Amino acid sequence: MNRPPMTRKGADRLRAELERLKGEERPRIIAAIAEARAHGDLKENAEYHAAREMQGFIEGRIKELEANLSSAEVIDVARLNAGKRIVFGATVDLADEDSGEEVSYQIVGELEADIKQRLISISSPFARALIGKSEGDSFEFVAPNGTRNYEILAVRYEG
After folding, report:
1. Count of Cβ atoms closer than 10 Å to residue 136 Cβ
2. Among 85, 78, 129, which Cα is nearest to 121's?
3. In the CATH scheme, what architecture does the domain 5-75 have?
4. Which of 6, 34, 44, 92 could make an S-S bridge to 72, C-beta 3.0–4.6 Å?
C-alpha cells in the first residue's frame, strides 16, 4: 500500500481538528439531539433532523481524519537534508520574472494542501514543475491562464 506523505506540521493540524471534533463538537451535537428529542414528535422536529444531519457530517469527518492520519507517512521536514534542491516539504520563494511579484509556497502532501495558506500538493502540476530544481534556477510553467516564467530565489526546510 502506498502511504501518502504528510509534514509533521500538517499531521499536527489534522490531529488538532480531530481532537476538537471529538472533544467539543461531538458532545455539543449529542446534547443538541437530546434537547431536540425532548421537544416531542421527531417526524416534524426540524431541530432534531438538523442535529442528526450535523452528527453525520462530524462522524464522517472524524472517520476520514482517523483514516488519513493512520495511513500517512509523517515526514519531519526540518530533518531533511536536501540542501538547496527542491523535494517534498521544501518552502520555495519564487519571483515571477514577468511581473516581478514574489511568492512563497511549501510543497506538502495532498491531505494537507491549502492554497490559501500557500501549501501546495506534491501531486499538483506546479509542485511537479518545482521538484528537482535548485535555488537560482529559472523555469517556465504553462498555466491555464498562460505561460509564466519563474526564478527560484530561495529553498528552505522548516519544521
Report:
1. 11
2. 129
3. Orthogonal Bundle (1.10)
4. 6
Q: What is the pLDDT of residues 96-124, one digit of tens each?
A: 988 889 999 999 999 899 999 999 999 99
- CATH number listed for the domain at residues 77-156: 3.10.50.30
Alpha helices in the chain (DSSP H): 8-20, 26-38, 46-71, 125-130
Question: What tens digit of pLDDT does each residue of 4-39 get?
Answer: 899 999 999 999 999 999 999 999 999 998 988 887
Where are the domain boundaries for CATH 3.10.50.30 in the chain? 77-156
Q: How far apart are CA 113 and CA 79, in angstroms?
A: 21
**In the chain, which segments carry CATH 1.10.287.180?**
5-75
pTM of the shown model = 0.79
Which of 154, 150, 3, 5 has the alpha carbon at shortest distance from 76?
A: 5
* Alpha-carbon gap, residue 151 to 25, rounded angstroms: 45
